[in-house]
Design goal:
Strand order of the largest sheet: 5-6-7-3-8-9
Radius of gyration: 34 Å
Number of helices: 55
Strand content: 5-15%
Largest sheet: 6 strands, mixed
Structural class: alpha/beta
Distance between the termini: 49 Å
Amino acid sequence: ADDERASITDQAYSEFSRPEYNALNTHNLPLGPVFVRDFSLIKDASQKSAAASTGMQSAPNFASAILSRPVAALLGLSGAPKKKEESSSSSSSSPYVFENVNAVLRQGEGTLLLGPSSSGKSSFMRMLGDTISGLSPPGTTGSVRLGPTKWDPAECSSNLKRTVAFCDQSDLTLTPILTVDETVRFARSCTEELDPKVLEESLSANFRLAGLDHVRETVVGNADIRGVSGGQKRRVKLLEMAVGTDVTCMFLDEITNGLDAASALSICKVLRAALQAQQFSAITSLLQPSDDVYHTFHRLILLTPDGKVAYSGKTEDAVAHFESLGLKRPDEMNIPEFLLRCASTPADLYDGTESGDVPKALSSSSDLADAFISSSAGQALIHELESRVEKSETAFVSDGSTPKLKDFAQPTSRQIKLLLGRGFTLMKRNPATLMRIVSAIIFGLFIGTLFLQTASDEDGTFVRSGYVLTLIFLSFLNSCMAPLDDLYHDRLTFYIHRKASFYRTVSYYICQVLCSWPIAAVEAFFLSVCSFFLVGMSNNGGWGFFYFWLLFTLVSLSGTAVSRCLAYSLPTNDMAQSLGPAALLFFVLSCCYSPQYLQLPSWLRWLAWLSPCAYCYEGIIVSETAFRAVGNVSGQVFAQGILGIPRLAFSDAPPALSTPGGVLAFDVYMLFILTIVFDLLACTLLHRSQNWYGPTSKRYQVASGNSLRAPPSAQRKSSPKASAMEGVADTSGVPSAPPAHLTASNIVYEVDVEPPADDDGKDKDDEKANLVENAAEEIEDEGDSQLGNPRTARDYGQVGNGALTEFVLRRDLGNSALRSSRSSMQKSSAQQTELDPPEPGRLRLLSGITASFEPGTLNALMGESGAGKTTLLDAIAGYKTSGHLSGDIKVNGIAKDDGIWRSIAGYCEQVDLHNPSMTVIESLIFAARMRLRPFSLEDYKKVAFATNIMKLLELEDYADMLVGDEAAGEGIPKHARKRLTVGVELAANPSILFCDEPTSGLDSLSAAMVVSSLKRAADQGLTIVCTIHQPSREVFLAFDNLLLLKKGGICVYNGSIKSLNEYLSSAGDEFAIQKESNPADHALDIFCGPLGAGADWVKKYKESDDCKTAMEIVHNQEPSEAGAIRVDSTPQGFFSELYLVLQRQMVAHWRTTTYMALRFWWTVAACVIVGVVYLRSGDKEDVTQIVSAVFFYVNIATVPLLAAMVPLVTERSVFYRESLSGTYSRYVYGTAVQLAEIPFNLGFALISFIIFYFMVGLSLEAERIVYFILMALASYWVLPAFGQLLAFTSPNVGAAVGVGSLLLTLLTLTMGFLVQPRDIPPWYIWLYWINPLRYILQGVVVNEIGGEDPIVDGQLAEFFSWSYDQRWWYCYVVVLLFGIASFLSIVLATRI
């Protein structure tokens, strides 16, 4: 293995020593050492004020979002804690994210950055990188100097932005529909140009060294699209940044996440070779590095929990420094883990005198930092920082003037060319492109047949104006809403690329605009051609259609520009999806259809000159009427007198607008100008948004995260018994979980796969071998969702999300671009086991596993990537609902009973899925109330049980902290989330607990904390089975037993961890675990790697005593009545479940400000806008104005239909986890979702009534007011119910909003306003009869203007077929439709 690793290092050094990599030398940049002195980052003002006052930040809620925090606090609605002593001790009182960091970064050296969770590692790298780039990030203090003369980066004329690369933790910035090769090649093309042959050789070598050469032509993929594995994505991200910048200093944040120990070491070896060959520096933060990985670095920066420096210097001197302070490294502890413990809990490692007194230097992180500065290592660092550096120690320094490096490697024209190629590739592969074209055809035909062959007389021309408005509405809706999803994802990619100086903001935006032109033109064409001739619009000798098409193309472009303005100015996609309809309402309301231009208040008419819709409407109406007669009058007279078009009468307009041709040209010109204005605004917002939402704007998770707290739980404090209970199993009144001896016998699991398609010109045998080698790894990484089958809650709702995208990718790239084609060949499992080979078309993932898991033990499942760890865990836990599973699973000798399995077994998923609006203790109490049996148990005992679980898992410090949204940087830290995931399952008092990689994404200290919690739970008598990935020595030794698999799902060891070394030694002393090595890494290297290649471990295990013992235990375990586990089968009542779930939903709504507060402000703003436009229209007794006002009021109420989808889709993963674990029935959830909206909908309906009703000046009769309020309540109930119905049937937010927008278009078109009922074709009249908006509109209209004047009643009956006498029937129908939508929502909630 050492020879192989040396070979990798030699290959890397040879590759990176090529002269082509030294192109940067010609720039003669001052690339000397980087001297970091007393570098600090001050927390933002809100965090400082919170820490200075109560030590916490109160949780926002609906009241604080509406009334402001001070007013809400005054009214007692803010949710802020009232006593300072209630704050968590874990909240950091330090005003710094990191403080007084001293370090020297030298060329050719790698620096390892270590620190516990929330120590500020990522923030330190970001801020240091920005400072070296000369950006002077706000909040930083101290000095950073460069080169032999120690230039200040901010004053350096060399422009070092392109020389700094930052590779963050997130894979979301990668474009999922580009291949690995396209992603890296684009990044390389943004730097200095190389000879094409050299470029290909360079890329091939980089892919080979990164272990990505076999997936070059595979798409990157994401949760919805099958692509490369998670570990491969990390390497793609690293390559993208490494080849995409003229690197002199790299900052790599947790680049080995998702990699096994061997792959992580290989990457670090390659990195070291690159540093030495190219003489640049790098800082790398890692979570759980092994000793071998640690020694690949030259220097170490070790941070304490509050961001102070515990050590900064050479890696080989770090242990000696802490030993000089009296800290002793245990023999079994590896170096990185020892160093992390020294920085976090130094007193635990103190090897002091008999008195046991801990020196002051080890009592706090501040004292530890001071001890380092005063130590010999610290003084040596200070001396190094203060001494002058000789030129001979620096790289690439020239005498004389320092040249300035260009801001970007490529000129603007070259950037645009590259971005256009990338942009058109994305457009071609994006299913949204196809969907927009298909929807344009469908809706063009629908609208064309809805307005089929309208007459050219007065009535027909008026109907045609409604057709024009409809088409404008739909075109603007599609172009504004459809791109939002892609814009938000592309925004993340842009931030990373722009910060790395790949291209200019202007270049990127120009390409965005250019790539949108073909889509807009094609969409407008199909929308126009499919309806224009069906309606019978005037073609004016041939140019009429082309003018029509041109205007709608420009409207689509302006809508896309508005979409970009929303995406680049608002923080989240959910907010943009909710506010998009507001922009649509503003532009459509001011398009001069109704109210007409002269009907607008004089002080509001300027709005009509800012609306693209107004210019499009005017241009088409003039084109339609100006060159023909309408009935017995001139078309120009009819348009001006009846339709109010043009806005300025020909007789009163300036000379340029006094003719129809002038107006037509003016409208095209102004649409073009407005589109440019919106695009300029969007481009400015995009550039500015880098500071608002870009990587450097990420909120710092300090101590326990961006602390969001709720009031301490009164329920928890109301139970004095809870604090007296010390153990979970001892909890008074709660029976202990019965012991469960879990056995699995001869478990075989196979999946159906596609054989690789024949491809002429390729070596099929090589292709098959390559597929076999990687198939199991990819299926193991991605789960059964790869195969179209749900496995756990995290991918239960994701099946099919990317089906359309994959279809487009297959069409464009072929099947090989998706990691879905698998060879039916199984290379070794059938040969190494006694099983028959798998049937053709199947892939075997588990090969006859037999295992025994006893009560009170903590069992580890380990193996190389693709070995089947998670597959085995899911198979035993019952989460394999697809494929071909065989074998016996028993509990206490009795076959597993699916009826009680959920009651005795818990499953902790790898992804931590919790309601972000609940506190930690609320989450545990909710789980206990919903799942703890017997359900008749008194509530205070359930609360006490949940409290003791919190103590068992040491979560007291986070008890009253909101769980928060981890992606947004809010809430509790990751290790606390992991423990909460365990706690929620323990709240069911299970006998068996399954955990899927509970330490993933954690540093070694946090991982030890989580495993320690699991060990304490096992000591209570639980049977715990965990998959574990790359554990530290301490974590590994905390387990009792190990089951280790190799590829093909073949067991190579199953026994006690204590006897592992003896087992290895029995095969030869060369296989024994060395004293200084990590036994987990060593075992993987022996059983699955090159170190154990000389032995047949499969055969040895079959012949071992451990295998025989396991077989005897499994086969000799006799079922007995005493061993049967019995649970209380009495179900929890429907209403009891409903009460608890409804209570939580209402609390979540109250605390989710982005949902309810957004709906509130939308209701207020939209009603005010419509009220102002139609101000006092009721006093004028203008029937048309009143109908128009009510029409727009009803459309205001449709926005909750879209808004209601957002929280349901985003929280659906939590719903999946809880419903699959038996927390509640799906009927209960669907009903609770409906009921939780009622109080808020009631408030919004009353607010909208008060604003709209009195501003418009409608009737003040009591009966009419009551009726209006009832219809407002009905509309605010029925429409969110339809939104929830769509949310339950849509795979994601974008799809839900897209379908919802199209549904709203259908409802708006057939509600009887734009097309009168008598004009609706008979084949669409059924839509009119089932349209809830129709009943709301006609009910409110007849209520306001009917029943008094027979003439008005006659007009309503003649034109609309509406009757005042039937108004209550309209109300009943709305309520009936609400009931139908609610029922369907509840039913669909049980089907998703």
